[in-house]
Design goal:
Layout lengths: L2 E3 L6 E3 L1 E4 L8 H13 L4 E4 L4 H11 L7 E6 L1 E4 L2 E4 L3 H15 L4 E6 L5 H8 L2 H11 L3 E8 L2 H10 L4 E5 L30 H13 L2 E5 L21 H9 L4 E7 L3 H8 L6 H4 L2 H5 L25 H12 L6 H8 L24 H12 L2
Helix pairs in contact: 1-2, 2-3, 6-7, 12-13, 12-14
The protein binds iron/sulfur cluster (SF4) (2 copies).
One iron/sulfur cluster (SF4) binds next to helix 12.
Length: about 375
């Protein structure tokens, strides 16, 4: 298992993480066993947005004896009222729900206290200007939550979170289908309406969010990376083709700022499939040819950082140069962090000999040689 630093939290999290939403649908012992098995395979981060007692008990039991080697994203504002999930900023509900989580985790802290699920501006204003956020800060000051995160599906809210300076990471929904869609505060609409729409590659708000996260060291953990399973099915996939778990995991993990993809694991087989990513070949991870070969796609001419264009005779990491170039060129001034990263590359774009052998391998028709020239000019090497 590989590990990545999660933004400002500095936590070293496994690049494959555990999304826990299926835990409560199984026998409790079975789910505890699944989490323990995931941990043995190196998974060390779990998201708990679930307010129900069973899911929380399962996570608590699975972490018994190894609490310190798990990192938990525990959501503040996800409550359980009359047997139902209710998202709220009302402190009289929020506080007992958070305390219940700690009790069921058999722990006196949560690694990352998540400002739970803000997608609309109205909810942002409510959450950020009242006793809800004061409570989050109080938990942080007391060390009961070690770090502060936020979950959202809306890139505009994600960008606002980055700008606060105190939110250290975000949980964000990423997959190739969502990436084409403009910002919305209606999550349900992200699952439909792909027919005959004139999409054009990655939505600018989403691209900007990834750029801002990378630049400001705000880590991203990924939810909904499989588009609710629809991308595994060519009939349901908006691209008209099916992807594999390894391809979708690779897509998420190659977005700027991303540290871990939290896979919703429902069975031992799904766990094996997700962890198999770690030893998958480049061909098995290759999402690019699937997107490019799809009857419906909108990524022509846009670099998706897939790495399909390798090898380069002078050994330029073309995907990385393109990623850093995109991050830098969308801003008036090149941020030092991006320039520093670029300059630390073993081979920079100025070494490109313009052979264009890479271009025939790019499934998206990216004009790589021109981009290398542009990158060399922008970064000065
Ligand atoms: S065109 Fe440049 S980047 Fe592409 S393979 Fe040739 S040298 Fe490498
Ligand atoms: S230039 Fe093409 S092949 Fe290379 S990383 Fe970008 S999209 Fe992939």
């Amino acid at each position: 298992m590989k590990y990545r630093k999660l933004g400002k939290t500095n936590l070293e999290v496994s690049e494959i993480g555990f999304g826990g939403e299926w835990l409560e649908r199984h026998d409790e012992d079975e789910s505890v066993e699944l989490m323990r098995c995931a941990h043995e395979k190196g998974i060390n981060i779990v998201d708990c947005w679930m307010p129900d007692p069973k899911s929380r008990d399962i996570i608590g039991r699975a972490m018994e004896g190894c609490r310190k080697s798990w990192y938990v994203q525990g959501h503040i504002g996800s409550t359980y009222q009359n047997g139902q999930y209710v998202r709220t900023r009302e402190l009289k509900e929020v506080r007992p729900a958070f305390e219940d989580m700690l009790r069921r985790f058999r722990s006196d802290y949560v690694d990352i206290g998540m400002i739970h699920y803000i997608d609309s501006l109205e909810d942002w204003n409510t959450a950020m200007n009242g006793d809800y956020i004061a409570y989050v800060r109080e938990l942080h000051e007391k060390g009961i939550i070690k770090h502060i995160g936020l979950s959202t599906h809306n890139p505009v809210i994600g960008k606002m979170a980055v700008k606060t300076g105190f939110i250290e990471m975000i949980l964000f929904s990423i997959n190739p289908a969502f990436d084409m869609r403009p910002a919305t505060d209606d999550l349900d609409s992200m699952f439909t309406g792909y027919e005959n729409k004139d999409f054009s590659g990655i939505d600018p708000d989403r691209a900007e969010l990834y750029r801002m996260c990378e630049e400001n060291n705000v880590g991203i953990t990924v939810m909904k990376g499989f588009f609710g399973g629809r991308l595994f099915n060519k009939e349901q996939s908006p691209f008209g083709v099916a992807f594999t778990p390894a391809q979708l995991i690779h897509y998420s993990l190659t977005r700027p700022g991303v540290a871990s993809i939290l896979c919703g694991l429902d069975s031992r087989e799904q766990l094996e499939e997700a962890v198999a990513y770690e030893t998958a070949s480049d061909d098995e991870k290759d999402y690019a040819s699937v997107i490019a070969g799809a009857p419906l796609h909108s990524y022509s001419g846009k670099c998706t950082y897939c790495g399909h264009c390798k090898p380069c005779p002078v050994d330029i990491d073309i995907a990385m140069v393109n990623k850093l170039y995109d991050l830098a060129s969308s801003q008036e001034e090149t941020p030092e962090s991006i320039a520093g990263h670029y300059k630390s590359l073993e081979h920079t774009a100025s070494e490109c000999i313009g052979c264009r052998s890479c271009e025939s391998r790019c499934p998206f028709g990216v004009g790589i040689a021109e981009r290398m020239t542009a990158a060399a000019t922008l970064f000065g090497v």
